[in-house]
Amino acid sequence: MRNKILAVALSAIMMSSMCALTACGSKNKAEDQAYVSLDINPAIELVVDKDNNVVSVRGENEDGQVLLYNEAGIKGEKIDVAIEKITNLAIEYGYLDENNKVVDTLVTSNSDSFAKKITEKVNTTVTATAEKTGLTVKTDGEGAYSLLRRMEEFKKEHPNDKAIQNMSVAKFKLALSVSETGEITLEVAVTLDESQLMEKLKEQSEKIEEFATEAYRQAKTQALAAYDKAIDLAVYGVYASFYAKRAITKPATAYYGSMYCAYATAAKSLDLACDVAESVATARTYPLTEEQIAAVVAALGLENADPIKNSKGEVTIESIEAYVDKQFKNTEASAKLEETKAKLTEALNKAEADIKAKVNEFTEEYAEQIEATVNAANAAIAAIDAWIKVLPEDVQAEIANAESDIKAIITDLSTIIKNGGKIEISDVRAKADKLEGKANDYLNKINKDLTDDERAELEKNKTDVVNKMTIEKKKFEDALTKAETEAKKYLEKLKAERKENKE
């Protein structure tokens, strides 16, 4: 994942350089596309091409997914047709009504004239469509409270970056969406121009299933992690067995395979444990404590927390923002409103900081995975130590020295676990990176050590092992099928409830 992020960053630099060399400007047709964000709530985003056709559409939050689920007549249509459809759906399912009559619309493009054209088309269509149903709706291009809060915090983190300080709300919204749906950081995303960001968003949206709820994404991440781990560990084992068979013919290098296997296995296991932990717990979706909830309730002047709960009955940063975005945009501007926003921002910033620290820690469940990795690494080292005794003494000494890094890391993790200490994801990532670096060192040694025929034999062995792992593949496919079924039922249930409550 981190390699992919680096690749994207390098790609961004190359793309920028190419634009400079080829005089990329207003004449480039790639610029004649626009990003459109509609925050009703639901939150929906679209990409429009130079011919005003919608080439990408995505529900940004759960309500957005509910609204779009099983709905045709949006992607592939002209922007005014698509916006009319979305507006009618929002009214049909009770998202737009007398209590919610403001739609936040943000549009950005590399072409200012095209952005202006699309903005006018979107705003006119929203208001005209609603008016046909007897509902007076207005549009607002300032951005929702939640978006502005995140943008302000991001600016505070980069006070000396002029580009970030001068960035438009619409550009920030686009960059934020790209960073949240793909394998690119927000810091990298904001360095790309609008056309580059929209291309990334289109690519990412194609990969995101219509039914991809938060629960589905978590299940998919866990299933994929388990499958990837099983495959990779089996492949690493091939290296160990391949070299073990050559202990006599390659006495000086016979340990390469086992060392590569040990380092790569430990690195992979730690990395995947981090991936799964991060997919399950994010700051925006992590349930707030009673104390944190009380602070938010007080800031908003609510009688209880019921209005800020999500469909699961939890109070999260995301559920709070969904509520206040709707309330704030439908409330007349006043000193009292600004005071409420200030109090809420203070409460949310504090809660978010505490939660970020909390979600960076492994829960007991994932700490057990770390312990399993430690035990596996210790077993691998013990196995190496058992058979290297047949090798020359100088080779044994070299192996003992080579094991020092992995032994130090494993000992460190073991000590933390035994003492009941906290294990932070960032620390585990750093240890995984070090182990991966050592594994790559041995992989380079292996590639130099083997003949062309030996490399071909090794590759065949790896392929054979993977092809035989039918059970692991079946488990992965079954897990995805189950998650998909549950996600579709969940969205259908929420959509039916919206329709029923509206009627």
How would you describe what is shown here?
With 503 residues, this protein is mainly alpha-helical. It folds into three domains: 2-12 and 32-207, no CATH class; 214-281 and 363-477, no CATH class; 290-359. The protein contains 20 helices and five strands. The protein has helices spanning 2-21, 62-68, 79-92, 112-132, 145-157, 162-165, 169-181, 186-189, 194-207, 214-244, 256-280, 290-300, 317-329, 335-359, 364-387, 393-402, 404-418, 425-449, 452-467, 470-502; strands spanning 34-39, 43-48, 54-59, 102-108, 138-140. The protein has a five-stranded mixed beta sheet, with helices on both faces. The longest helix has 33 residues, at 470-502. It is elongated.
Overview features:
503 residues, mainly alpha, 20 helices, disordered N terminus
State which percent range the strand residues make up. 5-15%
Biggest sheet statistics: 5 strands, mixed
Number of strands: 5
What gross morphology would you assign? elongated
Kindly name the structural category. Answer: mainly alpha
Any low-confidence stretches, pLDDT <50, length ≥5? Answer: 1-29
The pLDDT mean sits at: 85
CA(first)-CA(last) distance: 46 Å
What is Rg? 27 Å
**Tally of DSSP helical segments:** 20
The largest sheet has its strands arranged as 3-2-1-4-5
Helix content: 55-70%
How many discrete structural domains? 3
**H/E series:** HEEEHHEHEHHHHHHHHHHHHHHHH
Give the structure's gist in a few sentences.
The chain has helices at 2-21, 62-68, 79-92, 112-132, 145-157, 162-165, 169-181, 186-189, 194-207, 214-244, 256-280, 290-300, 317-329, 335-359, 364-387, 393-402, 404-418, 425-449, 452-467, 470-502, and strands at 34-39, 43-48, 54-59, 102-108, 138-140. The protein is mainly alpha-helical and 503 residues long. The chain folds into 3 domains: 2-12 and 32-207, no CATH class; 214-281 and 363-477, no CATH class; 290-359.
